[in-house]
Design a protein that fits this description.
Layout (H helix, E strand, L loop, with lengths): L2 H9 L15 H7 L3 H4 L3 H15 L3 E4 L5 H5 L4 E4 L2 E5 L24 H15 L4 E7 L1 H9 L1 H10 L1 H25 L3 E5 L10 H7 L1 H10 L5 E5 L7 H6 L4 E4 L5 H8 L4 E6 L1 H6 L2 H15 L5 E5 L9 H14 L4
Parallel strand pairs: 1-4, 4-5, 5-6, 6-7, 7-8, 8-9
Antiparallel strand pairs: 2-3
Helix pairs in contact: 2-4, 4-6, 6-9, 7-8, 7-9, 8-9, 9-11, 15-16
């Protein structure tokens, strides 16, 4: 199998020749390729160049179109702060009152903000390497986008005191994200990773997740028309694993605090798993430690297929390259099927 075949087999919850390796690589790719992040997040050719160089040099199985968590919020009207080599962030929340929501626009992914950058990057990666590597792309989940537009503190207050405001805002953001999904599917993605960092149990309760996250995430996943989805939630998501499965995401992408064997015990191979080598270990550990931890992940979750070895969250930009290569060596050593 080549890289793409390996990933597509795993995406179908089956066993490829070996466990695929797809760490969560954004800022690392830009630094590794010598690309300023302002260019990585705003110029499709820079993103494409950095991703291809990174996967080719490390033996990784998929390229990944993503740059920051504010791309949808910006396209909906939010002001964003840029630095030459920093990840873009919201300059100030856009939605301060109920009336401010009337000014929000549902963006056209082919025209508004930097959404076209990602769409063009997907198209170019498919053209340049889509027969060799799987092509993943990101969207930020509806709750994540709403929290960027409103500010996470005010958003959390709204969930209790102004639930009708929260519902309206999350509904608007879900429509924006669903359109982005449809555009990425049209561009040719093999899978979509949906990030819901603000929906972590570290931020909101499982009860609030069920009320304000689950139905909207399910709506976005349905917009993909069957393209495999990964649901990524930071931190210890153990308390909401069953709810994450109910979104109908094909894969759960979980952080290093989560016990992969427990997911398999609860849900078998009905749901895929991507994870979950610690980003801090990738940054500070030795190649031998990375190989050992990768082997643990493989032993916990790879049996029966539907497993992709990855990082628990984004790979830190200053991670030593030999540590990522150690993940690939571990897959070769411990992750062979049959």
């Amino acid at each position: 199998m080549n890289f793409r075949d390996r990933v597509l087999t795993a995406l179908n919850l089956a066993q490829p020749d070996r466990v695929p390796v797809v760490p969560f690589i954004i800022t690392y790719a830009a630094k590794y390729a010598g690309v300023r992040f302002i260019d990585y997040c705003s110029k499709p050719d820079s993103l494409v160049e950095a991703q291809l160089k990174t996967v080719e040099d490390h033996g990784i199985d998929a390229v990944y179109v993503d740059s920051d968590p504010v791309i949808e919020a910006e396209a909906m009207g939010c002001k964003v702060k840029y630095g030459l080599d920093e990840v873009p962030c919201v300059a100030e929340p856009f939605v301060k009152t109920f009336e401010d929501m009337e000014a929000l626009r549902i963006p056209d992914p082919f025209r508004d903000g930097r959404m076209p950058v990602w769409i063009e990057a997907v198209e170019k990666l498919k053209e340049k390497a889509g027969d060799v590597y799987a092509v993943f792309a990101n969207v930020n989940g509806p709750f994540q986008v709403a929290a960027q537009l409103r500010g996470i503190a005010d958003m959390c207050v709204d969930l209790y005191r102004r639930p009708e405001m929260a519902d309206k805002l999350i509904h608007l953001s879900s429509e924006a994200v669903a359109r982005f999904v449809e555009a990425e599917v049209k561009a040719g993605v093999d899978a979509i990773v949906m990030g819901e960092a603000m929906a972590s149990p570290n931020v909101i309760s499982p009860k609030l997740f069920e009320r304000f996250v689950l139905p909207y995430d399910r709506r976005v996943i349905e917009a993909g028309g069957g393209v495999p989805f990964f649901l990524h939630i930071c931190g210890d998501s153990t308390l909401i694993i069953d709810l994450m499965v109910q979104t109908r995401a094909r894969f759960l992408e979980v952080d290093s605090q989560v016990d992969l064997a427990e997911i398999r015990r609860r849900h078998g191979n009905r749901v895929g798993i991507r994870g979950n080598v610690s980003p801090l270990l990738l940054l500070n550990g030795t190649p031998e430690e990375i190989e050992e931890e990768s082997g643990r992940c493989i032993r916990s979750a790879a049996k029966g297929g539907g497993f992709i070895l990855g990082s628990g969250c984004e790979v830190p930009r200053n991670t030593p390259p030999e540590n990522l290569k150690a993940m690939v060596r571990a897959a070769e050593k411990y992750g062979r099927y049959g």
